[in-house]
Write a structure and sequence with these properties.
heterodimer, A: mainly alpha, 77% helix, B: mainly alpha, 14 helices, 72% helix, 0% strand
């Protein structure tokens, strides 16, 4: 097990290196001069030159690249052009809000999606199955931000049930609409995947055996079928993390949620490149870590999975 | 269905697939939805009741501003008195253009790279798979946003390429898996024994057999691309005003949602959903008809 984790971690290193390199290439394609961006139009040539040398912008490009790799490895993502804040500090600070949003969205999506998928499979071709699947395919087809706006229109503007947008100092009522908005897509995907996996498992011989033994349907579905259908479902959950983070960018923008997604959009508008590249690297790392956890979780769900 | 049965029924593989496809109601619904939206896009000038950019406040007066849906304007008008239905009809052109061109970019990158990785294996595969894993680690929307944002005045071509650059990885994965499966088959052995050049084996002998999953993946990808572009435009990094882009319209209309002006932001969203739903039904139908197993 330990050696598997180590190997898996080692395998992640070249991917992280690739991510950092791609981001470096991306930002250094920019024709503009970051030093001038920092100073604005007023900067005199002497200050400009000083900033350029402070930021290492006067070094040859390969030197800049190695410095960037070294800094990232140390967890130093530079300073924001705008606020002069450490990017790592800013990202970690804003990540709390994103994490709170994303975690609840995943919990909601898993509860609703997996439950709906299991019921749909058990009662295949029932009215529930049809309506759940129509809702699910609509859910994957609707733009995240539009769903959010519809929820706002209905529950905040028309019914006045929700106080409005923003973080609301952690008040849970402010959390409801963003969580639903972000959760719709993964819930819909999970419902579809769970249904098809359950249908496949339910047609297997050992399920027939379990029924023939006279086990209660609840036990057959819950213990025999469900656990075996769960592996592909968990895999999908892992690949959905990057989709979820993309969704968070839009959800946070609509609901003025002070997370990483909104920070990134602001950085893009202000052309604040250190925040921008730091955020992308950070999100890619979250994706890789989440998928590492997913891979390791197989062993807990399915004892047949061995890591060697 | 075995090869014997197919031969007996007298059709090619593609004809058999069409027969299966035709029996699938949802697939036919999807085909109808996609054809209808393509038709609307092509014949936009004939279908649209008004000019999508013309500000009717100058001709119809103040009543044309933010008018609720009526028989004159079925989906209402926006702040500038532009007919929303006409803008949605022209918007189909923008969405489909992005979908088609970005898909082309993703196929141009994904098919050859996936084929190389799958056919040669070893170091080539390791290298290409590494690139695929790196791209997969990025949140797609943010990556595309960043690519578009580094350009000062991004044209739509930049958007096509940016989306294609992230989208090709799912095509490449499918092609790679097909090639790994097909390269050991007898007909490839035979082609090699005949001394055919590698490029001929790869492109003429194996690739046509790997096409079905590529078609399915590209169709399903169209929906994803249209959603991605809508998000991009919504955040202000896609099509620029006064282009009638659906995502942009939602972004413009959202400021007026709180004042009871719902039609500006709601109808373009329905248009996006209709189009994406159509491609998803079509893609699912093609997958079942072509009997493709995809890992999504």
């Amino acid at each position: 097990m330990l050696s598997y984790i180590l190997r898996r971690l080692l395998y992640t290193i070249p991917v992280v290196w690739g991510v950092v390199t791609v981001v470096f290439i991306l930002i250094n394609v920019v024709p503009g001069d970051p030093a001038r961006l920092m100073l604005g139009q007023r900067g005199d040539p002497a200050t400009l030159a000083k900033i350029r040398s402070d930021m290492g912008l006067d070094l040859p490009i390969y030197q800049q690249y190695f410095n960037f790799l070294r800094d990232v490895a140390k967890g130093d993502l530079g300073k924001s052009y705008r606020s002069n804040e450490q990017v790592t500090t800013a990202l970690l600070e804003r990540f709390k809000a994103t994490f709170r949003l994303a975690l609840w969205a995943i919990i909601l999506a898993a509860l609703v999606g997996i439950t709906a998928g299991v019921i749909s499979a058990v009662k295949q071709y029932s009215a529930f199955d049809y309506s759940a699947m129509i809702i699910a395919i609509s859910g994957v087809s609707a733009p995240v931000f539009w769903v959010g706006l519809l929820l706002l229109l209905a529950f905040a503007y028309n019914l006045n049930w929700i106080p409005g947008v923003g973080y609301g100092d952690g008040d849970w009522r402010y959390l409801i609409l963003p969580v639903i908005t972000l959760g719709v897509r993964p819930a819909a995907l999970l419902a579809r995947i769970t249904r098809s996996c359950m249908l496949e498992v339910l047609s297997q011989d050992y399920v027939r055996t379990a029924r023939a033994k006279g086990l209660a349907e609840r036990v057959v579905v819950g213990r025999h079928a469900f656990r075996n259908a769960l592996i592909p479902v968990i895999t999908i959950l892992g690949t959905q993390i990057s989709d979820l983070l993309s969704g968070a960018v839009l959800t946070e923008t609509i609901f003025a949620w002070p997370g990483i997604g909104r920070l990134e959009v602001e950085a893009l508008i202000n052309r604040d490149f250190p925040i921008m590249r730091g955020g992308i690297i950070f999100m890619a790392l979250i994706f890789l870590v989440a998928n590492l956890i997913v891979d390791l979780s197989y062993g807990f769900i399915d004892p047949r999975v061995r890591y060697d | 269905m075995t090869a014997q049965q197919i031969r007996k029924s007298g059709g090619s593989l593609w004809y058999e697939a069409w027969l299966r496809f035709r029996r699938n109601k949802l697939a036919m619904v999807g085909l109808f939805m996609v054809v209808s939206i393509v038709g609307i896009a092509i014949f936009a000038p004939y279908v649209a009741p008004h000019d999508p950019i013309k500000q009717l406040i100058w001709t119809e007066g103040k009543e044309a501003k933010l008018a609720a849906p009526t028989t004159a304007h079925l989906m209402g008008t926006d702040l500038y008195g532009r007919d929303i239905m006409s803008r949605i009809i022209y918007g189909a052109r923008i969405s489909l253009q992005i979908g088609i061109f970005s898909t082309l970019v993703s196929l141009l990158l994904g098919v050859p790279l996936g084929a190389l990785a799958g056919y040669f294996g070893g170091k080539v595969d390791d290298f290409i798979s590494w690139i695929i894993n790196v791209i997969f680690a990025f949140p797609f929307l943010l990556f595309v946003l960043a690519v578009v944002a580094v350009f000062k005045n991004p044209s739509m071509v930049v958007v096509y390429i940016a989306i294609g650059v992230v989208q090709w990885v799912s095509i490449a994965r499918v092609v790679r898996a097909q090639f790994i499966y097909l390269r050991e088959r007898e007909f490839v052995e035979a082609a090699k024994a005949l001394g055919l050049p590698t490029w001929r084996i790869v492109f003429v002998h194996i690739l046509p057999n790997a096409l079905a999953p590529v078609i399915v993946q590209a169709t399903l990808g169209m929906g994803g691309i249209i959603l991605l572009e809508a998000g991009l435009a919504f955040l202000g990094f896609g099509a620029q005003p006064p282009t009638p882009s659906w995502g942009l319209m939602i972004s413009e209309g959202q400021r007026y949602l709180g004042q009871g002006i719902w039609w500006w932001a709601v109808f373009p969203g329905l248009a996006i959903m209709y189009t994406v739903l159509g491609f998803n039904f079509l893609g699912d139908g093609l997958r079942d008809a072509l009997d493709v197993r995809l890992k999504r």
